[in-house]
Amino acid sequence: MKKTIDLHPKNKHNTSYDFDALCDVLPSLEQFVFENKFKTRTIDFAKPRAVKALNKALLIKYYNISFWEFPDTNLCPPIPGRVDYIHHLCDLLKRSGIAANVSILDIGTGATCIYPLLGNSEYNWTFVGSDIDKNSLKNAKSIINRNRLSSSITLRFQKDSSHVLSNIIKDTDAFSASMCNPPFYKSEKDAKAENKRKLKGLNKEGQTLETRNFSGQSNELYYNGGEKAFLHNYLYESSLFKEQCHWFTSLVSKKDLLKGMYSSLNKLGATDIKTVNMGQGNKISRMVAWTFQ
C-alpha cells in the first residue's frame, strides 16, 4: 500500500472542497463543477481552466486575494500544496526562535506570485520574489498592486539564468529564510512523459492534452540537468551568502537526491540540515532546509 502523508494540521484544505461556497465567491467556477459517480461534486483535474478556476476561488475565499490573473500558459499552482510549504517553513522558523519580522526570499516566484501571497496572508511575512522571466515579474507585480501588497512584497529580476542567488541577494539583505520550488524536468520530453502518467492516474489515459493539467512554461518546468542540477547550484550559491539568510530551503521531489544534497552541504560547511516530509496532493514531497549559522 502506498504511504500517504496528510497536509499540515494548520492547512485549511485538509477536508474536501466546499464547491457551493467556492462557487459563491467565484460564480465562473460553477461551469466546471459536476457530480461524479460517487455523488460528490468535483471538477475535471485534467482541464487547466478548471484547475485555475478552483485555485482562484480558494484564494478569494480563504486568503483575501481578490485579484489573481495570469496567462493560461503559465504554471497554475495548487493552493493546498503551496500553503503546506508555508506552514512547515513557519514551524521551522519558530523552532529556531524566529517569529517576528519574518522576511522571505522566494526563488522563482513566477507570474502567480503564489508563495508571497500565501505567506503574507497566513503569517504577515514580507517577501522578495525573484525570477528570470521579465513577463512573469510584470504579471506578478500587477497581482501585488491590485491586492495592495506593494509594501509587503517586492520583486527582483535575475538577469543570469545560470545563477540562483547571485545577483539577487544584496550585502544589506537579512532574510529569515529562502524558499524554492525548483523545475523538476530536464526537458520538454520528460514533462510530456509525466503528463501522460498523470492522465493515467486521472483515468484519462486515452485523452491527449496539449498542455499539462497545471500548464507551465519552459522556464517553470525545465532546467538543464533537471532538478538535481538546479539544487546543487542552489546549494553552492547558498554557501556564498551565509550571513544574509538564516535558513535556505527547497522542495525536493525525488527522494534519491537527498543523499547527494546532504553530502554536498556537509562539504560546504552547513551547520544543520533538516528534511521534512510533506503531503503534496497525490504525491509525497519534502522540504529540505539547511543553515550555516
Walk me through the structure.
The protein is α/β, with parallel strands linked by helices and 293 residues long. The chain has one domain: Rossmann fold. Helix content is 36%, strand content 18%. The chain has helices at residues 19-25, 48-63, 79-95, 114-123, 134-146, 188-201, 218-221, 226-238, 258-268; strands at residues 34-35, 41-42, 103-107, 126-131, 153-157, 175-180, 245-252, 272-280, 283-291. The strands form two sheets. A seven-stranded mixed beta sheet has the order 5-4-3-6-7-9-8, with helices on both faces. It has a two-stranded antiparallel ribbon with strand order 1-2. A hairpin with a 5-residue loop joins strand 1 and strand 2 (41-42). The longest helix has 17 residues, at 79-95. It is globular, with a radius of gyration of 19 Å. It starts with 18 loop residues before the first helix and ends with a strand.
Outline of this structure?
With 293 residues, the chain is an alpha/beta fold.
Task: Identify the notable features of this structure and list them briefly.
single chain; 293 residues; alpha/beta; Rossmann fold; 7-stranded mixed sheet; two-stranded antiparallel ribbon; 9 helices; 9 strands; 36% helix; 18% strand; globular
